[in-house]
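tool_log.txt
---
The assistant was asked to compare two proteins side by side. It first ran the structure predictor on the initial sequence, then on the second. Raw inputs and outputs are pasted verbatim so the downstream comparison step can read them without reformatting.
(1)
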Amino acid sequence: EIDGLNEQLEEDLRCLEHLQVQLVDEQSIRGVLSTCKCSLWTNEANALG
């Protein structure tokens, strides 16, 4: 029974590690998009101003 629990814990750990990588990737993408939006807004404001 303990072996089964250890296997489940290892599988859960792999899943959590995968989700953590996905989260970091998404946060990175959101940061890039946010930077792009700021740049676009600044460029538009400069063009209008």
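(2)
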Amino acid sequence: MKVYIATKLSDSDTKEQVMIGPSQAIFIITAVQNWYSFLTLRHCESNVCLNGGTCKVNDQDRTFQCLCPVGFEGLLCESEKVCSLKCHNNEVCIFTDVGKPKCNCSEEFSGELCEVGSIDCQVQGCSTGERCMLVEGGRWRCMHDACIPNPCQHNASCTLVKDTFKCACTSGFEGTLCENDIDECMTTPCKNDAVCVNSLGSFICLCKDGFRGTVCEESTLCDPNPCFNNGICSIVDGLYHCNCQPGFTSDRCQEQIEEECNCKSDKQICINGICKCPDGFMGKDCDQPLSWSCIRNESCENGGTCLEATGGCLCPPAFTGIRCEHTLECIVDSNPCIHGNCIWSANGATCNCENGFEGKYCERNSPEFDPCLRRDCNSGVSLFDLKFISSLVFFLSGGFLRP
């Protein structure tokens, strides 16, 4: 750019100018047209350049130029340059001889921004906003941590990726910094005609009557159960339906069905379509009186079940009796009979003894028993039963043998 020195023509002169005296100014001229009264250049005798700038004159076209020192700029070197580098560890930014910014690192640090410490950071630690990282050569150095402070928004996590970072967004957010809220209602998540309302990082479903749940997926028509008499509630086409138990009908199973029983005995009574004997009677024709009834008196014993229709007890295996009070020993004690088989009836368990034995458990020999009914006597051998129980003497020709 060429600079011309001219006389200030008037106070109303609007040309871009820099005052250098009471009646002189430096005008920036890109094209000189109809311009008058140029002063003779004085070869920078007065040195109008500031901050140590050097004035250089071009005699041929009557112009001059300020050569600014390092750290200054402008037409007259009037402006100080701003060092754009952000040096770490409180180091100072300076300009090189060619005017390029540079961090002036001390001996303790290195790197373009003085970010690498010369002392192992695992020992000395790092400054705020830095992280101790493994660099080339197997050394640990303090490096600027792009995740301190966390640039990610809405509780997103920050991860270092080389010289930059990456945000892992939480549910409901997106964007480089997770700054954008996702409108979940765009995907119509709510069911059963519910209204979707977007919220920060989430959404809310406004359910219609009869529905509930996060997305209104659950029907409340059967909760609480509208069916009476243990009817089972189900939902069909958005409406509840009652499946009634036997003997009940209507939309909510509130009406009892009067069914005919066709009872075979005049003494039987019809209850919900079932023929039952009145209290105190039992049997096919209800003509057998009950001396004891589990309905009127105490309950069945040993886990027996009271039959409402008859008033009697249904006994579990191994028990018998009106109240299931008797034990079937054949089952409980396996086979208690020593020399016989266990059988049971309504009167209890009994032993059916083998020939030659008697007693409750067939535990002793019968005195009137003929041993030859139980053993074969051949070859002229006679078998006699002596007083010793189970001791027999065999009389043979020429002697005897006691087994």
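---
observation on (2): The first strand starts at residue 3 and ends at 7. The chain is about 0% helix and 35% strand.
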